[in-house]
Design goal:
Shape of chain B: globular
CATH superfamily of chain B: Aromatic compound dioxygenase
Radius of gyration of chain B: 17 Å
CATH architecture of chain A: Sandwich
Distance between the termini of chain A: 26 Å
Shape of chain A: globular
Distance between the termini of chain B: 22 Å
Strand content of chain A: 25-35%
Largest sheet of chain A: 9 strands, mixed
Strand content of chain B: 25-35%
Number of domains of chain B: 1
Largest sheet of chain B: 9 strands, mixed
Oligomer: heterodimer
Helix content of chain B: under 10%
CATH class of chain A: Mainly Beta
Order of helices and strands of chain B: HHEEEEEEHHEEEE
Structural class of chain A: mainly beta
CATH superfamily of chain A: Aromatic compound dioxygenase
CATH topology of chain A: Protocatechuate 3,4-Dioxygenase, subunit A
Helix content of chain A: under 10%
Largest interface: A-B, 92 and 81 residues
CATH class of chain B: Mainly Beta
CATH architecture of chain B: Sandwich
Number of domains of chain A: 1
CATH topology of chain B: Protocatechuate 3,4-Dioxygenase, subunit A
Number of strands of chain B: 10
Order of helices and strands of chain A: EHEEEEEEEEHEEE
């Protein structure tokens, strides 16, 4: 009976997302549920969500080139990352909180648990945040992160990537992902990337060089558009706004 | 209107998720981060929820990040970020700890009441797409008995029940099992 109730959101296409268990990415073996996920319609618990105000952002949250400076600029390739947040119906998603984290130019994270031998950059934290504008556009400045090794069925290397966390209009749209950089030869060797099986879905995770938005004599630019789940036009449940 | 785009695929939050989502935990000082283990809700009964996350070998996961979202004691969701909280499992003990209030009843899709519950999402290395579950309360037996979501669970309903700590009215224990015999029920909502 429950399965006949329409949800307020388009169902997640779990064949487009990575499956829970992808043994080539070793960490999934003991951390993926074995039972089938229980499908339920969304109630107000999922169709609502926290609303973050632009005033929560610090002055340089969207600028990792500046937000951790101690005595100079961070080392590395200066880049601007920008894009647009849409839903599956191509509607712009405003006021989406985007939280970003990444390694430095040498592939080292500023994290108490990262012991990779590449040095920390005293002027770079790898922490940043921004919010999409009324038309869904977002942008932040950073350095291009380096690749780094990690243990996975023996030694393995992550392609350069930046982690993103997104809050749409409700908790059902919650998304955490990573994006990669066009042309990186490590992408096709990465077990975490390859947890996504459809090549078109992998391509959706690759930021494209965006020379038109490069800042002359300053920074290269990459474009990464993001799609959140779409809200159905006519949900059967009462929409309390 | 036709669906014309595909949702951006999820990728694991990885072991260094704290840098972005709880920077203080990673050792990064940030001005007005504003997100922590307190929902900021007041009114009703203040409660503390603690627990651990275990993997399929029974080992405690010490690099997970958890988020909750819930209604206030009146069953209403509050504007802003009140009702939302985020914490990590401790690097040494693996324990997480949320401070909030016991939620009231939120309507089901047909307008009938659901039992009090908190939405919980789990992110970690090795979790390719975040896991979505609910925390119910073992001491809400009547409400739980008629809850439509708990009622749809054939096996494992007890994995969603937070249990009151002995000797304390306001502390609950909620352990998560990612995999195995006591595997927590996870949803696709």
């Amino acid at each position: 009976m429950v399965s006949e109730i329409k949800t307020a959101f388009t169902p997640r296409d779990r064949t487009w997302h990575p499956k829970g268990l992808t043994p080539a990415y070793n960490s999934t073996v003991l951390r993926s549920p074995k039972r089938t996920l229980l499908q339920m319609p969304a109630s107000r618990s999922e169709t609502s969500g926290p609303v973050f105000g632009h005033n929560m952002l610090g002055d340089h949250d969207a600028d990792m080139l500046r937000n951790a400076i101690v005595d100079g600029d961070p080392v590395g390739e200066r880049i601007v990352v920008s894009g647009r947040v849409l839903d599956e119906y191509a509607r712009p998603q405003p006021n989406v909180l985007i939280e970003a984290w990444q390694a430095n130019a040498g592939g080292r994270y500023r994290h108490v648990r990262d012991g990779y031998l590449a040095p920390l950059d005293p002027n770079f934290s790898g922490y940043g945040r921004c919010m999409s504008d009324a038309e869904g556009y977002y942008s932040f400045r950073t350095i291009r992160p380096g690749p780094y090794p990690y243990p996975n069925n023996g030694p393995a290397w992550r392609p350069a990537h930046i982690h993103l966390s997104l809050f749409g209009a409700c908790f059902a749209q919650r998304l955490v992902t990573q994006f990669y950089f066009e042309g990186d030869p490590l992408i096709r060797h990465c077990a975490i990337v390859n947890a996504v099986s459809d090549p078109a879905a992998v391509d959706q995770l690759v930021a494209k060089l965006d020379l038109d938005n490069a800042v002359p004599f300053d920074a290269l630019a990459y474009r990464f558009d993001i799609v959140l789940r779409g809200r159905n036009e006519t949900p059967l449940e009462a929409d309390h706004g | 209107m036709k669906k014309c785009l595909k949702e951006t695929p999820s990728q694991t939050a990885g072991p260094y998720v704290h840098i972005g989502l709880l920077p203080e935990v990673a050792g990064i000082e940030v001005d007005r981060h504003g997100i922590d283990a307190h929902t900021g809700l007041s009114g009703g009964t203040p409660i503390i929820i603690t627990g651990v996350v275990r993997d399929g070998a029974g080992d405690i996961v010490k690099d997970a990040l958890l988020e909750i979202w819930q209604a206030g004691s009146d069953g209403q969701f509050v504007d802003g970020q009140t009702g939302f909280a985020r914490c990590h499992t401790d690097f040494e003990t693996g324990e997480f700890r949320f401070e909030t209030v016991k939620p009231g009843s939120v309507d089901w899709t047909d307008g009938s009441p659901q039992a009090p519950h908190i939405t919980l999402m789990i992110f970690a290395r090795g979790i390719n797409i975040h896991l979505h579950t609910r925390i119910y309360f073992a001491d809400e037996m009547d409400a739980n008995a008629s809850d439509p979501v708990l009622g749809a669970i054939a096996d494992g309903r007890e994995t969603l029940l937070a249990t009151p700590d002995a000797g304390s009215n306001n502390s609950y224990r909620f352990d998560v099992s990612l995999q195995g015999d006591a595997e927590t029920v996870f949803f696709d909502i």
